[in-house]
């Protein structure tokens, strides 16, 4: 909502149309709706989709029409958790959003493409709000402290911001409680105050110990020790580590240290990352523990990492990247005159859907990928080789 922000410009120019604010909890959807309505000079009315029904919506629409007819004032109807309205409730909003009698601002934490009627979605613009950054959360905390004439210890600020998971409302709620506790010691918020406000134990971490614990977590999974991996996971979570950060590390590890030795590893890690976004903490601890144990028990292989490093080194050392003529795009007029696409053998026209053909640039010998001896990876490689030799390979799981 800065001076040059598009949404503010639309509001102040009285060009505001109905819109949907989509973002995680605590990203300021309600606050933004109020600011937009104020900037546009609209009468602000709010409903919660959790507790409101068709009758409530009809009453608001009728009062909005009366206000417009008698005073020439349009109404901004803010509906929190609009995705909870059923189809009939959402359909009630279609005529007034179409006519512009009411400016609808719907707030949702769910993907509106799945949860909001297509007819309503087509009559609104979609604005996506992202979780607060560390910097913006720090600014919120600093403003809250200044308003109360208080200060905060550096380690307490780090944990408060880090544990908020991008939730601005959450960080301010925790700060409010911590400030009450800090009033007994000269309004200086300590790590203990933040821990008590979060109703949980906070393990003090220096910057070095934080990275050491992350390193121990990753190395324990790589080393196939589920007990140690789970221990370090919980250590990180109890210290306020971001669930998103841990989920990202699991996704990276699934490709870096497991790869094709277990094709389900990446799916497990990716599903965990999605679940973290869907359920949030504290329930996401279960999901992270599930993924951590699963990845620790998976067979390990760094063949993907090694192959990627080998190819990267070759290209950076000056290996030719010229595409062979038969692999070039041959769909446009005149391509064949240049030899582009000429001689390309379509693999599906051959037995086993494979034909011997050069795919690398001239002068590049290959040999970048070196498979491990892990059974899952070996089955894939054996099947690949058997197809090239015209022999039926073992089933690939």
TrEMBL record:
Keyword Repeat in annotation: no
CDD domains: AAA, HLD_clamp_RarA
Domain AAA+ ATPase: 15-132
GO BP annotations, alphabetical order: DNA synthesis involved in DNA repair; DNA-templated DNA replication
TM annotation in the entry: none
A Pfam family hit: AAA_assoc_2
Keywords: ATP-binding, Nucleotide-binding
Protein name, as recorded: Unannotated protein
